[in-house]
Amino acid sequence: MIRLIDSLSYSNRLRGMSPMWKCGFAAALFILSYGSHPPVQAAIFAWMIVWVVRYARIPLKAHMVMLGTACLFFIASVPALLIEIQPGSAVAPGSSMFVLWSRPYGSVYITETGLHTAETLFMRAAACLSAVSFIMFTTPVAELFQVMKRLRFPALVLELMLITYRFLFILTETAHDLYTAQRARGGHNGFRGRLNDTAMLIVRLFAKTMHRYKGLSHGLVSRGFTEEIRLAPYRAGTVPARYRLESGIGVAILLLLECWLRWRGIV
């Protein structure tokens, strides 16, 4: 998935636009998504799909797969938000929507408050993820580092992020090579065989990855690495007037909608 995102970030229709403007636009929507009401968050989610799929020409399937993969972490936390356990057979009146399990010594049920909390958090997570996905699919990582450098991020932080990003590619490439080698030797046949081969792959993956990472370090030293990774100079691209106008009007409408919801006292 990381290779697909990296490839699409270089080939999308919004590639030539100013990375600083794209980061500022996404940051504004991210902040608005975090503190707004669910209707505004739903509007941001839908609007970001238009920007990513229609304007940037990113395949809808790739966009949905990325969002769905990120939502798996939210799904893992849903049971803790929804399910309540109460000792005894009596359930507080009006506090449960659906009793899952009831015995004289305890009850398990879903509360209305928990369901509302899960819905609110899901909309917030979806809206924030859509804003982040706009940056991921339209701006290469190299340009993101240039933007962070212009924003005065510490050099050590940028170097650690750059090395970690490179390490992810080494990790995925090594895992793919090991899996291909196992399949070529007749591995991953049957449930038990898959478990054994996967365990062997995980054990060897760390050693292989660290060996290749050490080779990367030696390569940097042999090329004159002086404890400072220099980034390419920042290049400010142009932003078409149509996109500037649409983004400004869209953010203004979202702010007005949020103010109206707060004025009406809608939660």
TrEMBL record:
<keyword id="KW-0472">Membrane</keyword>
<keyword id="KW-0812">Transmembrane</keyword>
<dbReference type="InterPro" id="IPR012809">
    <property type="entry name" value="ECF_CbiQ"/>
</dbReference>
<protein>
    <submittedName>
        <fullName>Cobalt ABC transporter permease</fullName>
    </submittedName>
</protein>
<keyword id="KW-1133">Transmembrane helix</keyword>
<feature type="transmembrane region" description="Helical">
    <location>
        <begin position="122"/>
        <end position="141"/>
    </location>
</feature>
<dbReference type="InterPro" id="IPR052770">
    <property type="entry name" value="Cobalt_transport_CbiQ"/>
</dbReference>
<dbReference type="GO" id="GO:0043190">
    <property type="term" value="C:ATP-binding cassette (ABC) transporter complex"/>
</dbReference>
<dbReference type="Pfam" id="PF02361">
    <property type="entry name" value="CbiQ"/>
</dbReference>
<feature type="transmembrane region" description="Helical">
    <location>
        <begin position="66"/>
        <end position="83"/>
    </location>
</feature>
<keyword id="KW-1003">Cell membrane</keyword>
<dbReference type="InterPro" id="IPR003339">
    <property type="entry name" value="ABC/ECF_trnsptr_transmembrane"/>
</dbReference>
<dbReference type="GO" id="GO:0006824">
    <property type="term" value="P:cobalt ion transport"/>
</dbReference>
